[in-house]
Amino acid sequence: MSGCSTRRIPCRFVLGAIAAFALARGVSAAPPAGPLTLLRPQPGGETAASLAWRVCPGAEGSALVLAALPAAGRPAVTLRFSRPMAGCQVTSEVMPGPNGRHLLLVRLKVPPGARPGRYEGLLVVRCGPSASRLRLAAEVLPFELMRPSKQYAVSRVPVTAADWRAPERADAGALRRLREIGIGALCLDAAPADRSALERMMQTAGLRGPVLTPGEPSPAQRPSPVSVAAPIRWYAWCAAGPPAPAALAALQAGGVRVACPLDDPEAVSGVDLPVFAAGGACGARLLRRDHPPGPGTAGWWRWDAGAATALENRLRCGALLWKSSLSGALLEIGPDAPARPDWPLRWEGVREGVLDSRCLTTLFALIRQVKDKDRSSLLPGKAEVAAAAALNRIVEHPSLEAADRLQALVITWILRLGRMVWS
Q1: CATH number of residue 332's parent domain
Q2: Alpha helices of 182-258 — where are they, by DSSP H?
């Protein structure tokens, strides 16, 4: 699947982890018709016997499958296509499902530069001597994803369920996985013993920061006067709230950037990076602000991603973050999160939300390009109005269906605007 040029435009699987959100909201599955049943996100737990995916090169998508599996043993999941799809990767996670069955969260990653076209085949789940199959069709589109313009920081790095690490103890492979999703910032449990080593590992993995570290950085951790290319920004993370004015001024005078939680998004605090609660009254005030969608003002919001539903994680990483006009999100993940059987669904919500953000990032990048190319065109303005209206609808009626409609609308406008840029 090489030798084909691609444009950096976001798309994803039409049927993906969205099925997980229906389950997370308490929708029970209908009685299965066979050993493998695809869960679709319709109310009432409707099921289907085939997969239909659309994906861009370099993107990752997923499907939630209800499977009859033995109580012991891990199934082997493979995809068999009617024609070769070189370089694709498939992984799966097993979770408890309804009626004594299991849920399989199946992820497929299509490599960058993949040849566009339709690929038909089978999803094969093998456990011991028995195998079950589900028909599938994957359409690879000739577009690649842009990275999100929003910043995303995590307080834990998902490696495996048995190996859950604080960011300062993660390796380059785990950090690289974050980068592939679109997450590039870290919130540390403690100041690293060697800040330079962590920076080198982040840069090797492609993470651009920033980094939040508890308390005031030691002199060895403060910004170096030597200029380096694309330095990673560090913040003193004051989790208890803003320091007293004199202490804040002293920190900033010493070259320390300060990040801390604030309760009122309208209050002027003087901190370098204000962080607000995504839920409750504070989050509601942020969503009522009448700002046009765009890259956002300096400031993040935060929530416990291990306690939120998959839908909440998706919306707060995607549509609602854009509506808030903030520039980033801090996903606080407790050390016990991987022990919860539904954690893969919650993390899938994060991944889907970042994909939504990548769609919006690309849309507004194209809007700017079309404005520069043809100032008389009405399409950029219409696209902005349509995106703003869809974001407002999600605020009023947050749902999986609304998020999917927003993404479909954004992709439609991307394709319309793209024809003007690519021609």
Answers
A1: 3.20.20
A2: 195-205, 245-253
